[in-house]
Amino acid sequence: PCATQNELDVDAAHQLIANGVKAVAEGANMPTTIEATELFQQAGVLFAPGKAANAGGVATSGLEMAQNAARLGWKAEKVDA
């Protein structure tokens, strides 16, 4: 889910599980309620919280801030290295 906080609730979690969801990866800050997270765990659904799933985006933002502060422009190859 890439939404506001608590967007994915227990009702939505039940629907996803009933439809055979295998994994849920948060793309926002805390879009899944605690109850829905617990339900996913009980059902054996792989769950990636936003702090883990978004780590690459946070790291890249740090690189972007560094290049902006130094007034540099990095090519994608350097960022990906």
UniProtKB/TrEMBL annotation:
GO biological process, one term: glutamate biosynthetic process
GO molecular function, one term: glutamate dehydrogenase (NADP+) activity
Signal peptide boundaries: none
Glutamate/phenylalanine/leucine/valine/L-tryptophan dehydrogenase C-terminal domain sequence ranges: 1-80
GO cellular component terms listed in the entry, alphabetical order: cytosol
Highest taxon, organism lineage: Bacteria
InterPro entries the record matches: Glu/Leu/Phe/Val/Trp_DH_C, Glu_Leu_Phe_Val_DH, NAD(P)-bd_dom_sf
Any coiled-coil regions, as ranges: none
Protein name: NADP-specific glutamate dehydrogenase
Taxonomy of the source species: Bacteria, Bacillati, Actinomycetota, Actinomycetes, Bifidobacteriales
